[in-house]
Amino acid sequence: MSEPRLERYRQRFRSAPVGEWRQALGSFPFMNQVWTIEPDHTGAMEWRSGSGVLRSAFEWQEVGDYHIRVRCLEVADGEPTNEAEPEEREPDPWIDLRYEFSLGTDGDLPGVVVLLHEVGRAGFWWSEDPLMLRGE
Question: Per its UniProt entry, which superkingdom is the organism in (predicted)?
Answer without folding.
Answer: Bacteria
